[in-house]
Design goal:
mainly alpha
């Protein structure tokens, strides 16, 4: 986490933006329930809902599916890959995803609110992983655009320096995503039912 400490202000802004945008999306979903319903319908139409139901009863497989989605579709394709082509592009892509996800998370039923209780920890863990990726692409973009900020003179050198720092930050991000995937799969499988009965 030396990179986060060395970029304390950026790290604070990244965290604020990461969690703040999701909260904004959640509030929007509460105010306009039809948006949340549209997102739920879209997830059914694209097969996501059916895929989740097919593996839900097997937590280990469910966790692997969650991890694959979070690593490849979100961390790599949404945050990292756009940023290695266009400086900071992944930050904009992730910001859009965070708001959209906030809207999606709004429960449509009492059972959904119960499921949200253990899922809050999942959100905290996984967003922290994405925040590390976002800090990495910020450092990459800054080093690329202003190589002197990385202690080098050429843009190519700045780019490579930024990539190395991004790779360093990707390691704890991956660890968090593994923890988040395991917690999400097992908590949804084994905690939601007892919680629902307890709160009924």
């Amino acid at each position: 986490m030396a990179i986060a400490r060395a970029n304390a202000r950026a790290w604070l802004l990244v965290n604020t933006g990461t969690y703040g945008l999701l909260v904004i999306g959640f509030v929007v979903g509460l105010l306009f329930p039809e948006l949340s319903q549209d997102r739920a319908t879209a997830l059914e139409d694209d097969g996501t809902g059916e895929l989740v139901r097919s593996v839900f009863a097997t937590p280990a497989l469910f966790a692997l599916l969650i991890l694959a989605v979070n690593v490849f579709r979100l961390s790599l394709l949404t945050i990292i890959v756009p940023s290695v082509v266009v400086p900071f592009a992944g930050l904009a892509c992730f910001g859009y995803w965070a708001v959209q996800t906030g809207v999606t998370l709004v429960p449509a039923s009492a059972g959904g609110w119960v499921a949200l209780i253990p899922h809050v920890l999942t959100v905290v863990i996984e967003l922290q992983a994405y925040a590390l990726c976002c800090l990495g692409v910020y450092v990459l973009g800054r080093s690329w655009v202003r190589p002197r900020s990385a202690g080098v003179t050429l843009h190519r050198q700045g780019y490579l320096t930024g990539l190395r720092q991004l790779a360093v930050l990707a390691v704890p991000a991956l660890v968090l995503l593994v923890v988040g995937a395991v917690w999400e799969a097992y908590s949804l499988r084994y905690l939601v039912g007892p919680l629902a009965r307890l709160l009924a």
